[in-house]
TrEMBL record:
<dbReference type="InterPro" id="IPR013320">
    <property type="entry name" value="ConA-like_dom_sf"/>
</dbReference>
<protein>
    <submittedName>
        <fullName>DUF1349 domain-containing protein</fullName>
    </submittedName>
</protein>
<dbReference type="Pfam" id="PF07081">
    <property type="entry name" value="DUF1349"/>
</dbReference>
<feature type="region of interest" description="Disordered">
    <location>
        <begin position="1"/>
        <end position="20"/>
    </location>
</feature>
<feature type="compositionally biased region" description="Polar residues">
    <location>
        <begin position="1"/>
        <end position="16"/>
    </location>
</feature>
<dbReference type="InterPro" id="IPR009784">
    <property type="entry name" value="DUF1349"/>
</dbReference>
Length: 195
């Protein structure tokens, strides 16, 4: 992967402010509001646009990485990264706790949301890095745990002519008290390989 530049937490602006935000050394501790989520229409019939995303402009081509500790087990608790153009054009990728296990996946929203996931029970209690690389009309999403190799999560379409902001996010659709420890937020050049 290309050389990444660590971003200060102060570089971003919250889409929806969390319940609490605390800097702990280099880490950022974020407490999510109960009921916070990001989703549009598909299957569930609702629109939620109040996930806590800390975003700054991301050039295209360009890449963003977010690292966090996977230390939660509440239904639909989630954290990762977001690329957002507007309320109807965005991508979130990371780990969500669902059906009794951590699931690595992505939601791509172009008017309506979709969702792809894969169980990663061995990631519980470990450090996760999610990476999204945007070039042309494609976003390549990869993730890894600790220092293991990145694995491909998703190759998704995003309109090439829209400007996006990107950065870490979390939300807690079903419960209060989710606290996510974000370890790192970095940006840099887009990947040279799609997968």
């Amino acid at each position: 992967m290309s050389e990444m530049q660590v971003q200060p937490w102060s570089a971003g602006t919250w889409t929806t402010p969390p319940v609490a935000v605390t800097e702990d050394g280099p880490d950022l501790l974020v407490t999510a509001a109960q009921g916070s989520d990001a989703w549009r229409h598909t299957s569930y019939g609702f629109v939620h646009d109040d996930a806590h995303a800390l975003l700054a402009p991301l050039p295209s081509p360009g890449a963003v990485e977010v690292t966090f500790d996977l230390g939660w087990d509440g239904q639909f608790d989630q954290a990762g990264l977001v690329l957002r153009a507007d309320a109807e054009t965005w991508l979130k990728a990371g780990v969500e706790f669902s059906d009794g296990s951590p699931q690595v996946g992505a939601v791509v929203t172009l008017g309506r949301s979709d969702w792809s996931v894969a169980p990663v029970p061995g990631w519980a209690g470990r450090r996760v890095t999610v990476r999204a690389s945007r070039a042309g009309d494609a976003v390549t999403v990869r993730a890894r745990v600790d220092d293991e190799p990145f694995r491909l999560v998703r190759l998704a379409y995003l309109p090439p002519d829209v400007a996006v902001q990107a950065g870490p996010y979390c939300c807690a659709p079903t419960r209060p008290g989710l606290v996510v420890r974000f370890r790192r937020w970095a940006t840099g050049p887009a990947d040279t390989a799609l997968h």
